[in-house]
Amino acid sequence: MDQKIFLFGILIIAAFALIIAGALIPSQILPYPIKIIIYILAIFLDVLAFATRYYTYIMMPLFKQRKKNITLDVQEPYWIAGSNDAIVRKIGEEFIATTFILIPLYRSATEMSVDEKLSFGAQIGRLISINTEPVRYSTQLHVMDKEAYLSSIRDSLNMSENEIIELTQKNASQHELDNAKGRVTMWRNMMERMSIEQSFELMLYASVSASGTKEYEATSIVQQRARDLMSGISSTLGITTSIITGNEMLKVIEPDHLIPYSNVRKQINANISGEQNG
User: Cα separation of 70 and 62, whole Å?
Assistant: First the structure.
């Protein structure tokens, strides 16, 4: 049945049902104000019924939706392989495994001479052609999570402050007290500087994928391709590459890991403080 006819029939039947209900139900059961509302609703349904001739493409999705859900991705979720060096996703009957290779390249074109730039460009050209399989090269800049480092500084600061208290109680010499106070000042300065400034990390990595009918087949193939690619990159650029493993892979596949929680919390607190002061 055509969608226009179907929707028109449903709305007309609903409108007539409301009119009949308002007319037949006694006023003792259904007061007049409620009957007036029912008649208005019936008129509204009639208007919608005749509007289906031109606006069915808008009305049908509204009537069909049942939940306020937004589909961000229709693909199957991924998981980390048992070898801890690849992510796996199942698409249909195939397993797709992907491995990420860290390329520790810290050279900048702004620091190179003209000849070095030409040589580096030739190296990149060879880098692209060393593998017959598709390879994706990516560069990513993200905020470093300094929470663990800041925690160690806090512990050192607390130890130094406790040391001053103990030395004072023991009537230690002024020289020992001055040394302890100097350490407290040093840790406080480091704490303030590291808390204010954000640190960024630049990652250059390559990703290669392989498919298979079984998970172990896909992971074994992608591991071999990754080893071949690592060998080619190392010989071309003269560096030592490594496979990104475990939770470190989340930095290149999960947006939440681009901005660590500690930095988000600090930013939120700063915004709240600014609003209160303003």
Answer: 14
| Rounded distance between C-alpha atoms, residue 145 and residue 259, angstroms | 8
Q: 43: which 2 tokens?
A: 């008129």
Nearest to 106, CA basis, from 139, 136, 129: 139
**What pTM, to 2 d.p., does this model score?**
0.52
Does residue 267 lie within any of the structural domains?
A: no
| Residue 190 structural domain | 147-196
Token digits for 134? 């598709």
pLDDT digits (tens, 9 = 90+) for 103-142: 887 666 677 788 888 887 787 778 777 777 888 888 887 7
User: Do 233 and 130 meet the contact criterion of CB atoms below 8 Å apart?
Assistant: yes
Cα of 223 vs its chain's centroid, Å = 26
**Residue 196 near residue 90 (C-beta atoms within 8 A):** no
Asked whether residue 118 is assigned to any structural domain, the reply reads yes
Same domain, yes or no: 95 and 222: yes
